[in-house]
């Protein structure tokens, strides 16, 4: 029980880090372009994650937990292919999100991005994955919430920032499904490190084509870059991996979904963002949809209550 409580605390810390990262992204968007931001951010993430890989590798070697059933060559090939595939998906999602941060609030970005919780099972239908009927109800709630949050009264137009965050949620949906395919087949931390490297390289190429790298501007944004690169990407991801070894998966997803709530809280406290009653209602409806979508079915809930894994 103590171990589970510690895991839940780590997950809560991860949600706080990820939620507050929207503030850092918003600050960074005021100074440098999205591709420049992501080039440096994910390069820092790679550097910060290398010591974690070293520590985890030493621990596995000392415990003799290396899987001997998977040939080294095949394992390396899967790792590289998976890293490139997840990196391309993350590059797409991160670029859309960082671009959108210049045109929307941290609170809106947090709630709309978290829609991937509902979009993942819906898109999974095309991959022949089963979807629970309750997900359709959650999707309807999410659409209502999104309308109240992002669509101006009397119109059917969505702001540029909210539209690109919605595209970002779709891209994160693809990213999660790709990770779902590759993560059981390879080392999760190494996979993450490679995908961060791919995002940094792809962002660098895009930066050279569309933006101008100015060192002084990067230095002006160094705190948001360090926060998102080291804390949000490396520390947050590592805490999630460590915590989910002992935490209940349903509780884990519920705690991590608080990311959107913390984005709104920090947006109000630090950026002095405010929302109308209509927008707050939209956020509340979307949050309810996200929570319901992650609740287990009755059969699974009985198994969880009985501590049956």
Verbal overview:
The protein has 309 residues and is mainly α. α2 packs antiparallel against α8 and α4 packs antiparallel against α12. The protein has helices at residues 2-29, 34-63, 72-100, 106-113, 116-124, 133-150, 160-182, 188-210, 215-220, 222-243, 249-256, 259-270, 277-294, 298-305. The chain has one domain. The longest helix has 30 residues, at 34-63. The two termini are 15 Å apart. It is 78% helix and 0% strand. The chain is globular. It has 14 helices and no strands.
Q: What is the secondary structure topology, with strand pairs?
A:
Layout: H1 2-29, H2 34-63, H3 72-100, H4 106-113, H5 116-124, H6 133-150, H7 160-182, H8 188-210, H9 215-220, H10 222-243, H11 249-256, H12 259-270, H13 277-294, H14 298-305
Can you tag this structure with a few keywords?
mainly alpha; EamA_dom; cell membrane; 309 residues; single chain; globular; transmembrane; DMT family transporter
């Amino acid at each position: 029980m103590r171990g589970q409580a510690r895991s839940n605390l780590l997950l809560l810390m991860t949600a706080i880090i990820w939620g507050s990262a929207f503030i850092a992204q918003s600050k960074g968007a005021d100074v440098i372009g999205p591709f420049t931001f992501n080039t440096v951010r994910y390069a820092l993430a790679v550097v910060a994650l290398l010591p974690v890989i070293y520590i985890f590798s030493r621990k596995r070697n000392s415990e003799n937990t290396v899987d001997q059933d998977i040939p080294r060559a095949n394992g390396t090939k899967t790792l590289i292919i998976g890293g490139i595939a997840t990196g391309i998906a993350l590059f797409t999602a991160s670029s859309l999100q960082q671009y959108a941060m210049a045109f929307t609030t941290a609170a809106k970005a947090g709630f709309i991005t978290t829609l991937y919780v509902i979009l993942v099972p819906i898109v999974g239908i095309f991959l022949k994955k089963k979807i629970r009927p309750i997900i359709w109800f959650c999707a309807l709630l999410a659409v209502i919430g999104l309308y109240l949050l992002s669509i101006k009264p009397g119109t059917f137009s969505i702001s540029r920032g909210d539209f690109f965050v919605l595209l970002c949620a779709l891209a994160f949906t693809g990213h999660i499904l790709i990770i779902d395919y590759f993560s059981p087949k390879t080392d999760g931390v190494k996979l993450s490190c490679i995908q961060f490297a791919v995002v940094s390289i792809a962002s660098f190429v895009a930066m050279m084509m569309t933006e101008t790298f100015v060192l002084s501007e990067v230095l002006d944004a160094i705190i948001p870059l360090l926060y998102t690169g080291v804390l949000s990407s490396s520390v947050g991801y590592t805490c999630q991996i460590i915590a989910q070894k002992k935490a209940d998966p349903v509780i884990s997803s519920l705690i991590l979904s608080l990311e959107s709530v913390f984005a709104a809280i920090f947006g109000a406290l630090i950026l002095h963002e405010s929302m109308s009653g209509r927008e707050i209602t939209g956020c509340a409806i979307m949050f309810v949809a996200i929570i319901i979508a992650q609740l287990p079915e009755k059969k699974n809930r009985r198994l969880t209550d009985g501590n049956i894994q």
